[in-house]
Amino acid sequence: xxxxxxxxxxxxxxxxxxxxxxxxxxxxxxxxxxxxxxxxxxxxxxxxxxxxxxxxxxxxxxxxxxxxxxxxxxxxxxxxxxxxxxxxxxxxxxxxxxxxxxxxxxxxxxxxxxxxxxxxxxxxxxxxxxxxxxxxxxxxxxxxxxxxxxxxxxxxxxxxxxxxxxxxxxxxxxxxxxxxxxxxxxxxxxxxxxxxxxxxxxxxxxxxxxxxxxxxxxxxxxxxxxxxxxxxxxx
Length: 235
Description:
- The protein has eight helices and six strands; from the N terminus they run αββββββααααααα.
- By secondary structure, the protein is α+β, with helices and mostly antiparallel strands.
């Protein structure tokens, strides 16, 4: 099947190289495209891949799935990263480690302020519209508002779970009600467990590259996981 606006050279590049965002666009033809980000634009998806961008009709997409193998991204100083000033300001305001905020953004949106997930989480920190409304966000795609609200939410979760990073990330990904449902343990969802490990890996890499950095939320080992294999996402 020939895809509009999608050259085979881009497809080959996308399939050959793993992405930082680590998601697959699964087409109805059976083809799987590795993407670093995507946006829903009316009746089309705009895909960001190593090697270029492409647009495909929504009806050609069968599913969007997380990839379980991730490429480590070398740590970059926050001052040299996109939105570094906004991250530092939110970190100071809500007393959340800036490296943690950066690690969450990297896993959630790969620094794409227009990212939209298959569960309708939006923006840099992938806020659900209901969460954004609760946090007083007027424009969910505005980087400053999104980072402020996402960091505020992270701060609330860190307080709720007494700085247990694994439970905080589990709640950020799957929802606090899911953590509560499984007895204040990490829900047994493959996507949630993978998400926690990705964020923790990036976070630990960033901290190890700057041993003098202070950290109010030290990484903890992954707590026991309740048994089942249901998948999850942002709820």
